[in-house]
Amino acid sequence: MKRLILAAILATAPAGAGPAPAPAFPVTIEVDAGRPGAAVDPVWRFFGADEPNYATMKDGRTTLATLGALAPGRVYFRTHNLLTSGDGTPALKWGSTGIYSEDADGRPVYDWTIVDRIFDTYRARGVKPYVELGFMPEAMSTKPIPYQHDWRPGSGTLRTGWAYPPRDYARWEELIHQWVRHCIDRYGRAEVASWYFETWNEANLPQYYWGGSREQFFRLHDAAVRGVRRALPEARVGGPDSAGAGDDFLGAFMAHAQAAGTPTDFLSFHAKGQPEVVTDATGSHVRMGLNTHLKAADHEFAAIAANPAFRSKPIIIGESDPEGCAACQGPANAYRNGTVYSSYTAAVFPRLLALAQRRGLSLAGILTWAFEFEDQPPFAGFRQLTSNGIDLPVMNMFKLFAKMTGRYVPATSDHQLDLDTVMRDGVRGAADVGSVASRDESSLAVLVWHYHDDDRPGPDAAVRLHLRRLPPALSRGALVTQYRIDDRHANSFAAWRAMGSPLAPTDAQRATLLKAAELTTPDARPTRLALRSGTADLAFDLPRQGVTLLMVTPAAQSGATTRRPVAG
Description:
The protein is an alpha/beta fold. It has helices at 2-11, 58-70, 113-124, 169-187, 189-193, 214-231, 249-260, 290-305, 339-358, 393-402, 419-425, 492-498, 507-517; strands spanning 25-32, 46-49, 75-79, 100-102, 108-110, 127-133, 196-199, 236-242, 266-272, 276-280, 283-287, 314-321, 362-368, 386-387, 390-391, 407-409, 411-413, 432-439, 444-451, 461-468, 478-485, 527-529, 536-542, 547-554, 562-563. Belongs to the glycosyl hydrolase 39 family.
């Protein structure tokens, strides 16, 4: 507990000290709503966590409900430890379901009770499983003792009995087969066919998640896929959810699957950034590693693009995060509670899509490995979407993504750094003020972010937004609603610090935090947009690490006041 409290205190520290911010710098963004392009695919709708049992707990249920409401029936959740032995008691980077054991005569005993509770919790909240087939039940492990790890932030051993190959691959396959049959009986064939099934996690990191050889993992994967497909021939199977470590693992996996004839409906890998604490004459601050994140993804994209048999497969980045360990704490992770995390998310998703498109690939999903940590101190410094059931700024970022529908339209900012520059240098000099936009038959959504790798003060961006060729449905009048995530909007962490960073908020303080967490607008109500022949101009200031979404929708004929600018 002392460690957690210390992390909470560290997380309250302000960004590195520096000179007063300079005056706002001008930014021009052009949106051509008359050129609809590719359909908006909600690639953001994938999430996950190490700890499966948090899902059924009070704040886990609340967080899942928020995720499910973003895109009911289309949100997916991946978790480790669905096959791990134990009674379901969670811990950091640990969970269990007790799904498999053996009787005194060595015969398999299946118990679906805990895993059913987890999946029932998902489905009741509009969330579907992205099923990770792992880890190894104790009775099946080739090295079962010690079984549960003693890992904790900063110490302990992670790879123990749960991480080893099975002593009997036929029993492993049969476990998977029986589980999928059970899921079909419980949830229906069509429902289970809509899930994703993959084997294990980061088997290319033997020091952490896999205690066998590469060939043993391939054998494990083949047996798991056979078990799934024997129960449900149309099931969606893939993998390998390997770490983006700059190695040849994904290429070897594809070569093996092709040679063995193992069905592969999708490919999955992980990509992470690398924040660090830097110190200069003005003090210390966190510097993010956006370029590291993008380079890791592009290395795997290149391997897929080079294989003609797999380059047309859908791709899921099965973990895509600013760094690698959600349950770890420390000064370099102090970005997590505030708006650096939300603005980083806004800046990285479009670029991951752009990298895939450059390679001629189909990126179907980007999975954020963040959920919640039950019964921990508030804002304790974990990588999570909510803290004690209270939405963090990054959760509100996904609410903004969910509002973008229809088709993308061109959005060009004179301060959006080009892809190659960000890949090479990150965002270390000029700030990255970028935009993406989409439209449907009657509305337009424009997302704008103001991101910098350095978590320190900087000038606002004075944005001038030029909208052209707006949808005909807006010709008789339009309203603008602006949503904001910054130091003063949709920011529970800022509200918590303002009230003195209480470790045990009272009921009244919690109510204040819940209110501060809401995705709100700077204006009390939408404002009427002044249109001129299908064009309009807007102006607003956007703080550093801020994100805004402007929704332009048809206006009912009323006495609403017409305003040209949207106030910052």
